[in-house]
Amino acid sequence: MRRADDRALLIRNARICGGKSETERFDVLTNDGRIAAIEPHGKIPNKDYQLIEADGLLVSPGFIDLHVHLREPGQTHKETIATGTAAAAAGGFTTVCAMPNTNPVNDSPEITRWMQAPERRAKVKVRPIAAATLGSQGEQLTDFRALVDAGAAAVTDDGRPILGDAIMHKALLAAKELGIPVIQHAEDTRMSQGGVMHAGRTAFRLGLRGVTAEAEASIVARDIELAAETEAHLHVAHISTVAALENVRNGRKRGVHVTCEVTPHHLLLTDEEVGDYDTNCKMNPPLRSEADRQALWDGLRDGTIDCIATDHAPHAAHEKDQEFDRAPFGTTGLETALPIALMAAGGECETAVRWLSIGPAALMGWKDVGVLRVGAVADLTLFDPEQEWIFRAEESKSKARNSPFIGKRFRGRVRYTILDGKLIDP
Ligand SMILES: [Zn+2]
After folding, report:
1. From the CA of 53, how far away is ligand 1's center (Å)?
2. Percentage of the chain exceeding pLDDT 90
């Protein structure tokens, strides 16, 4: 899409998260897609710039989501790259990592390139995470080098685990060569098969088959041993249990290169939220117990968990509107991530930004984004941490409406998202 305004962009009168500067006001000038200057308010003479009057909004590096499902190719009735990235922009995200469980599975450089082509009309940067094995069948590794050359940022079989010890070992070795992480959907499907929610009191009451915490923790423990042996980078997707978190914590103490992410819904909700078979609360991994939820908050605060990733998983209404056993797993998440991060951070903007931007960039080794400094890429988010708002289905940019947060009141709202120094059309 051609942009109407090709002038340099000047953001005036913004606050910067963190430190003593939080009450001071700054102006941020972008030029040629980079941050050209950050100066105390009023110091940058006004030339012919496109202006954003921030009026005290907080400016932060653009948010980065390491885990989204954009459903394209193949499932465009749920979401497209265009609509999914519009939701990302609305939520303050400037980079999203698209998972490979599309149809066909993204296990080739051709699909990886196709997902990034201008014809997809992405509103923000899309970094595909390609499949680790052909068809995500867990049998034969894909060509990691060709995938990385095509733009893939990492590999995973997300939606499924890389289950076999030998194939996971091979994947870690191949990924290490290229300096990318293997992202694991930690679920021992031999233990979880047929499970539709967390194995707990609510599952018992509803007569639903439960997924135990051990199904997650055992794979994380196995993977940490393999990461230790190979000295490769293991990233655990959407961690959800005390036991798995404890494994990561111990692995890190031993010096293993293991990182992990948590979703906003696991931070905010428990399995009780499933209530009377609410399919909008059916996720994989499932919503867990209150003890798990509290441990995830602790894990974020003590740094065991590196970042928040939404696991944005859109579905069509008719798919979610089925009996609980049949409905697909997943919730959308891009547009509601900021207020939930702020809540978990006790209102500390700097901390929320660490989880949404600085943390994910650091763990991926990206130097030019996730940072607010002169010379960095001008991917920026402007938000009001105090603004209260209600998440309304009809205002969502996503094609999908499957969220337990529809109609909920939140505090903290994204106001502008800037990509390469250009304001994204709302
Ligand atoms: Zn997953």
Report:
1. 40
2. 95
Other beta carbons less than 10 A from residue 3's beta carbon = 12
Domains and CATH numbers, the chain: 9-59+377-423 (2.30.40.10), 63-364 (3.20.20.140)
Are the C-beta atoms of 125 and 94 separated by less than 8 Å?
Answer: yes
Contact in structure between 239 and 248 (CB atoms under 8 Å)? yes
Ligand 1 centroid to Cα of residue 66, in Å, is 11
302 annotated active-site: no
Residues near 324 by beta carbon (within 8 Å), at least 6 away in sequence? 196, 197, 206, 208, 274, 277, 279, 282
pTM value > 0.85 = yes
* Catalytic one of 27, 271, 306, 311: 311
CA of 330 to the centre of ligand 1 (A): 9
pLDDT exceeding 70 applies to what percent of the chain? 97
Q: Which of 326, 311, 234 is nearest to 265 (CA)?
A: 311
What's the CA-to-centroid distance between 234 and ligand 1, angstroms?
14
